[in-house]
Amino acid sequence: MKRLLATVCIFLFSYSIAADEMDGVGDITFPTSGSAEAQEHFLRGVATLHSFGWKQARTAFQHAQEVDPDFAMAYWGESLTYNHPLITEWDLETPKIVLGKLGETTEARLAKAPTARERGFLIAVEALFFGEGDTRARRTAYMQAMDSLHQRYPYDDEVAAFYALSLLSSAGPAGEGHRANVKAGALAMDITARNPRHPGAVHYTIHAFDDPVHAPLALPAAWVFADIAAAVSHARHMPTHIFIQPGMWQQVSDSIQSAYDAAVALWVPGDMAGD
User: Fold this and answer.
1) Which of 74, 143, 190, 236 could form a cystine bridge with 65, CB 3.0-4.6 A?
2) d(Cα 240, Cα 238) in Å, to the nearest integer?
3) Which superfamily is assigned to 7-266 in CATH?
4) Beta partners for residue 8, in sequence order
5) Where are the domains of the chain?
6) What gap in Å lies between CA 159 and CA 122, rounded to an integer?
7) What is the four-CA torsion angle of 229, 234, 235, 238, rounded to 10 degrees?
8) Contact in structure between 192 and 198 (CB atoms under 8 Å)
């Protein structure tokens, strides 16, 4: 399959509020072995996934699968839309069904990934969804797999972004958690230095420094995230995590209203909380 290297700025104009108010999901570079048409959907999915736009990302990944049924990374992406990494609630069974569409066994699924890098991403979700232990054990195994992938590809922004999120997801008690958060934040800020409009980099910076002591480090990310990923309601909400720390109440109020407006525009009958 043709290897495609693409840098994209993705725009979504399908919602009821004005396009200039809700037009972007961010800029990412994520080379894969998918077809050109499938890659367009895939990139939209990954960018939206970074902002926790679960349903929007899932739809994009499913479109990529329809275009290129053997595109392993499209199934990888969809599986992650059922994992809410920063809360304990998650759907463990549906990702197995999604990955099962790619292949019935781990070996069959990995065989569909033509590059070592893509196999590394798949190995990580295999640990997350098919591994043993409770939620924390699985998330720790996923983090360790992403750590290994990051060591192999230290300058790959997508590997670094998903590794940063895995650190936040697997963080334990307060002391250990702060160390993991600072490391995740450092990774995210490093990505931002190369790509200021990377949705995952600014998003994970905010989560990493979401406390009164470290919040000033995330203030630049808080100012821009809603603009970078305006098409995702969660991105409009996230700045409140930082604005609230120093008591920036007007900015908190404005962000909440903006997130509500986007959520209303995106809602369709049948949507569940978090979609």
Assistant:
1) 74
2) 5
3) Tetratricopeptide repeat domain (1.25.40.10)
4) 28
5) 7-266
6) 12
7) 180
8) yes
**Region for 173 from its dihedrals, namely left if φ exceeds 0, alpha if ψ lies in -120 to 50, beta otherwise:** beta
User: Whose CA is closest to 8, among 38, 23, 30?
Assistant: 30
- Cα torsion 120, 187, 27, 65 to 10°: value is 20
- Phi then psi dihedrals of residue 173, to 5 deg: -60, 170
The encoded tokens of residue 95 equal: 């990702």
DSSP state of 272: P
Under the phi-then-psi rule, with left for phi > 0, alpha for psi from -120 to 50, and beta for the rest, what region is 270? Answer: left
Is residue 76 within 8 A of residue 46, CB to CB? The reply is: no
Tokens read off for 204: 């994970």
Burial class (CB in 10 A: 0-12, 13-18, 19+), 47: buried
Phi, psi (degrees; rounded to nearest 5) at 91: -100, 110
Query: What is the tens place of the pLDDT at every residue in 234-270?
Result: 999 999 999 999 999 999 888 788 777 876 776 665 5
Residue 18 has pLDDT above 50, yes or no: no
Span 47-56, average pLDDT: 96
Listing DSSP states for 136-155 in one string gives: HHHHHHHHHHHHHHHHHSTT
Cα separation values, 142 from 124, 138, 146, 167, Å: 5, 6, 6, 9
